[in-house]
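Audit log entry. Action: structure prediction of a protein-small molecule complex. Ligand: adenosine-5'-triphosphate. The ligand was supplied as SMILES and no pocket hint was given, so placement is left entirely to the predictor. Protonation state taken as written. Sequence taken verbatim from the request; no trimming, no tag removal. Recorded inputs:
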Amino acid sequence: MAHTPDSHEAPRHDAEEPLVAELTPDVAPTMEAFLGEVAEHVEEGAQEAKAQAGSVVGPYIAFQHVHKSFGEFVVLDDVNFFVNAGETLCILGRSGVGKSVSLQILMGFLKPDSGTVLVAGQDIAGFNERQMQEVRRKVTMVFQNGALFDSITVGENVAFPLRERGGMSEEEMLQVVKGLLEMVGVAGMEDKLPSDLSTGMKRSVAIARALAAQPTAVLYDEPTTMVDPLMGQLLGDLIQRLKQQLHLTSIVVTHDTRFAENLADRVVFLHEGRARFFGTMAEMRASEDPILREFLALDELVLPY
Ligand SMILES: Nc1ncnc2c1ncn2[C@@H]1O[C@H](COP(=O)(O)OP(=O)(O)OP(=O)(O)O)[C@@H](O)[C@H]1O
């Protein structure tokens, strides 16, 4: 991977490039073992979800006829989409169409008015907080602002899920924290406070913390907005490598159709309460639907590069 300091090209990471390839040698073996465990969890999660669905293939995460209103205001009206284990779904749409609300419903922070919400193969619509905490061990969310704990260091933020799970020595924990921070492009930031970091860095740390929890699926809210193109590319490449090498299931809310083009197995386009389109990005580009065409055309104009 050629990269010079004055190069304007962001360094690219091929999806096949091992996640540990660029880690410092002192952490690489621990990280290899740690990521191996993540991949095992992911595989177990996929098998569990299949067993629950009683079939060989079944969605890992899905909305089935989901409705959600705030007072008179209908945000989601009979919305359907799914993502299979190991796949990536991008949720597209203009501002205010319910993309973040959809993620919050999947995490159980908001309840749908009706419909089935499948997460890790289970219908969570009627789950209580304790049951949701179990689900959130498997499916974690990376918020736009990172949602880090402000009063503790970056290193302690990433160590948090490791400590919660237990079974790791302090030395191993330090190595995993160091390795995860290197992997997400913010090496050496352990002792900083979240307030010392830029938006993109906070998001990277949030991804490191999400991975520390050894999830089976990660939901990302606008991972590439408000970050410079280099950081955006790094985060996009990382999400792709996590999919390719660990088979993590992902849902990514984004405005950026180029990002969706590179990453998504399928996209869902929300518009006026409905899932106006659900399919591949190529199918979306081929669609004659004037609303889709307008969204894609505007997106071409808005994107800076
Ligand atoms: N807790 C809430 N109470 C009342 N209204 C809400 C609540 N959460 C979201 N909304 C409304 O629901 C609509 C959808 O919001 P949402 O944040 O999901 O949009 P979005 O598609 O993610 O937009 P953006 O791209 O701007 O983030 C908005 O009109 C918002 O004001």
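Audit: result stored. Residues 28-53 form the longest helix (26 residues). Confidence is low (pLDDT under 50) at residues 1-8.
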